[in-house]
Amino acid sequence: MLLIGMFDSPFVRRVAVTLKLFELPFEHANWSVGADHEKIRRYSPLGRVPTFVLDDGEVLTESAAILDHLDSVVGPTRALVPTAGKARREVLQLMALAVGAAEKAREQIYERVFRPAEKRHEPWLVRCRSQMHGALGAIERRHAGNPDGWLVSGRLTQADITLTCVWTFLRESVALEKEPYPALAALTATCETLPAFVATHTSWSAPKS
């Protein structure tokens, strides 16, 4: 299997962490959506990452679809998203909030990197940052006081993985302050010590304009 994309993307990294936790061997193409756009488009017409190529040649795009496939490979007892019920809804909602925060950070980055300074729309940047903090605040409130250390069901789930990958991305890319989010800071610090996270951490670098 081949995973395409750089690990400084939280979307690529959450797939890589999951593969390592499941002990599924894979090759990694460390390609940038900027410098390696045409290479990526050979596999994905959108030219987006992550792109995941299965052993039989089938190509999956978008991290959510890839993660769903990996859960199906290992089966329901090892799956990182519960198969049904309240726990499944909670994990999916927390993942959606974390992904939303990452998307709002990405919009801030693109506004500053790709738009000329005189054309940047500060109210839009303020709105994106407010939405990013709104999502993180909702996760913090959900997790604060949680006695077992994990977000859902007392075990590591895809919600913890996605949040950690997003949190580290935000800390490195938009200088997210950790002080308003003590519960999230503690949870993600724990995750970042796990071998699967250590092996996939690459310091974020700004895209080239």
Q: Given the structure, what is the number of helices?
A: 8
Q: In CATH terms, what is the architecture of the largest domain? A: Up-down Bundle
Q: How many β-strand runs?
A: 4
CATH class of the largest domain: Mainly Alpha
What does this structure look like?
It is a single chain. With 209 residues, the chain is mainly α. The protein has 2 domains: 2-74, Glutaredoxin (3-Layer(aba) Sandwich), CATH 3.40.30; 85-194, Glutathione S-transferase Yfyf (Class Pi), Chain A, domain 2 (Up-down Bundle), CATH 1.20.1050.10. 53% of the residues lie in helices and 6% in strands. It contains 8 helices and 4 strands, in the order E-H-E-H-E-E-H-H-H-H-H-H. The protein has helices spanning 10-21, 37-41, 63-74, 85-114, 122-143, 158-173, 182-191, 195-198; strands at 2-4, 27-29, 51-53, 59-61. A 4-stranded mixed sheet has the order 2-1-3-4, with helices on one face. Strand 1 (2-4), helix 1 and strand 2 (27-29) form a beta-alpha-beta unit. The radius of gyration is 17 Å and the shape is globular. It starts with a strand and ends in an 11-residue tail after the last helix.
List keywords for this structure.
single chain, Glutaredoxin, Glutathione S-transferase Yfyf (Class Pi), Chain A, domain 2, 2 domains, 4-stranded mixed beta sheet
Short description:
The protein contains 8 helices and 4 strands; from the N terminus they run βαβαββαααααα. It has 209 residues and is mainly alpha-helical.
